[in-house]
Structure formats: structure tokens, C-alpha cells
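Lecture notes, part 5. Sequence design as translation. It can be helpful to think of inverse folding as translation between two languages: the language of shapes and the language of residues. The source text, in C-alpha cells, appears below.
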């Protein structure tokens, strides 16, 4: 009995050491969280009832986002750029069809963006800067009655992904700029997300969202 207790205590000690080992490595923690988020999103996506028109609209939104992605106003050397509203089609899908479709559309666009314009240092950085960052734009779908507020939340979600990536994986750029990683990542990602986010909000305000929403939902 005493031997079993000692063995159990030893296992608890090993578990504690493993726990603190994981916590001491931010990239490992982020990877675990990313996997959890992706599993939750995939579970929601499985419940979507796809139709031919819905699939076509998702494809059209992604294609339009890719075209707008090419129209860059400015691009940072380490990745990240201000475009002429490339997030608008993804945000629009979330506004019209809700978070599940928005998250899925953003995820697919993130993967496509990764293929077309990759900047990869590690697998965790890749997840943060591409599928997770663009997937977060689908958060706008949780704010059915206030899409501007939802857009701000979605933009903050994308900013958070890029910010964490910048702090953990792009420290060398901060050193070259004479700064520490946190303020550097906050400045760089805050500026380009704010500027492009403002462009997206202006475009969304100009669109007849309610009319388009009612028309598209009837068609699906």
C-alpha cells in the first residue's frame, strides 16, 4: 500500500514538472490553444448545411479577398501589409451567415494566403499568422445587431494573433529597430491592423448590408 502511494506521489511530481515545462515555453502553450480552437471550429463547421449557392458564395468571397490582397498600400519586410479592404469579403460572410460560415471562410482564406504569400519561421507562427488570424475575422458573426462592433472585435482577434507571433517569433526585428519585442509587435501590428481595419469599416458602411443580407439568405 505504501509503495503504491509513493508511486502515485512520484507520478504527480512528474506531472507537475511536465506542466511547468509546458508553461515555460509560450510557443507550446499557444500551439495547444490553437489546436483546441481549431477542433472547436471544425466541430461547428460539421453542423453547417452546405448548398451549391452557399459554396459558390464562399468561393466568390475568398476569390475577391485574394484580389484585394494584391492591392497593397504598404507591406512590412517581415510580413503584414495594408491592403484596400481584403478583409471585407471575409467579414461580410460572417455578417450575413453568422460565425460558423465566417470562421470557415476566414480559415480557408488564411490557408490560401499561406500558399500564395508564405512567410514561415515555425509551425506555431504559421498557425498564428495565417489560418488563426484570418479565421478570427469570423467573430463578427457573433454580433448580428451591431456589425461595426463585431468588426472591431474581429480585428482585435486578428491583431492578437499577429501580436503574439511578433512577440515570440520576431524578436530579432525588434532588436534591429532598437526596441524590445512587446512594444515593437504592438506598434507594427497595431498600425497595420488599425489602418486596414479603418478602410474595411468605411467600405462596410458604404455597402447596403441589410439589403444584401436579406437577398443572399433568400437565395441560399
Amino acid at each position: 500500500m505504501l509503495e503504491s502511494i509513493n508511486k502515485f506521489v512520484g507520478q504527480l511530481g512528474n506531472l507537475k514538472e511536465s506542466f511547468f515545462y509546458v508553461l515555460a515555453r509560450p510557443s507550446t502553450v499557444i500551439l495547444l490553444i490553437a489546436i483546441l480552437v481549431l477542433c472547436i471550429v471544425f466541430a461547428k463547421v460539421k453542423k453547417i448545411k452546405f448548398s451549391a449557392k452557399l459554396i459558390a458564395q464562399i468561393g466568390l468571397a475568398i476569390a475577391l479577398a485574394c484580389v484585394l490582397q494584391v492591392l497593397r498600400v504598404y507591406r512590412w519586410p517581415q510580413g503584414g501589409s495594408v491592403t484596400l479592404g481584403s478583409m471585407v469579403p471575409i467579414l461580410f460572410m460572417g455578417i450575413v451567415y453568422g460565425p460558423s460560415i465566417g470562421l470557415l471562410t476566414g480559415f480557408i482564406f488564411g490557408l490560401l494566403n499561406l500558399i500564395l504569400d508564405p512567410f514561415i519561421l515555425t509551425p506555431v507562427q504559421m498557425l498564428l499568422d495565417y489560418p488563426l488570424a484570418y479565421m478570427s475575422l469570423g467573430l463578427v458573426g457573433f454580433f448580428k445587431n451591431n456589425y461595426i462592433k463585431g468588426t472591431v472585435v474581429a480585428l482585435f482577434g486578428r491583431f492578437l494573433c499577429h501580436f503574439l507571433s511578433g512577440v515570440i517569433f520576431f524578436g530579432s526585428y525588434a532588436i534591429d529597430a532598437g526596441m524590445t519585442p512587446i512594444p515593437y509587435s504592438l506598434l507594427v501590428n497595431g498600425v497595420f491592423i488599425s489602418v486596414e481595419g479603418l478602410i474595411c469599416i468605411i467600405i462596410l458602411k458604404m455597402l447596403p448590408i441589410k439589403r444584401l443580407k436579406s437577398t443572399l439568405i433568400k437565395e441560399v
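The translated text above is only one of many valid answers, since several sequences can fold into similar shapes. The chain has a mean pLDDT of 82.
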